[in-house]
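Quick one: structure for this chain?
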Amino acid sequence: MLKHNLRKAAANGNGVYVLGTDEAGYGPNLGPLLIGASAWRVPARQVADELYEVLAECVTADPADESGKLAIADSKRLYQPGGGLANLERGVLAAMWLLERRVSRWRELWPVLDPHSLTQIDGLPWHDGFDEPLACEARELAMRLDGGCQNARVQLTGLQATAIFPAQFNAAVGRCDNKAEVLSLATLRLAERTLSALPEGPAIVLCDKHGGRNRYAALLQEVFPDELVRVRRESGELSVYDVRAAGRAVEFRFQPKGERHLPTALASMTAKYLRELAMRPFNLFWQRQVPGLAPTAGYPGDSRRFWNEIRAAQQRLQIADDVLWRQR
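Got it. Here's what it folds into:
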């Protein structure tokens, strides 16, 4: 019945874009905050929340599934420290391959997902001259995903990211005096950028709740200053708004545990993958400066240990605290 409804909706031209957004690195003191966004075109609004069911022949949320399906799930399910990046890398690079944005090296990846990232990356000493190949061959996985999407009348239409390294993060917190607001504004601006790259058509944007906030109308108005933001619902479970954006009608939804939606899960994977890729040259750089130094993921507690152990080298290299340490 679902496949029948999908074909009927596609024939009637009732398509809608569904965007999912998510972050990685909101809590750490070291390394960047990453935000990902994935965009999909589905044949009808009523199946916007059912992409796992719609794409069941080619996608799984279970990282232990051995059927050959592509795992797209919350990054916390696909990645554990020390466990390698393969589960994240397969999904992200397969999606990029499907979008004809094929990359094979660390330095190629950043500008494809975030056109503004290299300005920050090239200004940091741990990135100077760093590059390495990406391990995954994504073609076969991408082809299976493409076949399942075609059968379901679904299309992956976008994958983008925003990277905010410590100096930029500290400056943004200084302007907002609230890091949850920094996350919300960066997420909404990434959604705007992703929407602007899509063909015409209505859209639904799925966002996680940020810092326990229930009201987002003022933040939406800041990102879309020339548009009317209409509040439909504001509660702890769900906040919903309507706005015109990039010439289209857009419904913004903010709700906890957004990773249960496939577009948000792919955004989560993208953000976490880039965050872990960013930490590799960071750790390697400081391990060259301080022999025997244990690497860090940058989270509170261990980040303080790491900072204490590199402090003498940091002073010797004249690296300012502001480009290393996130104040909030």
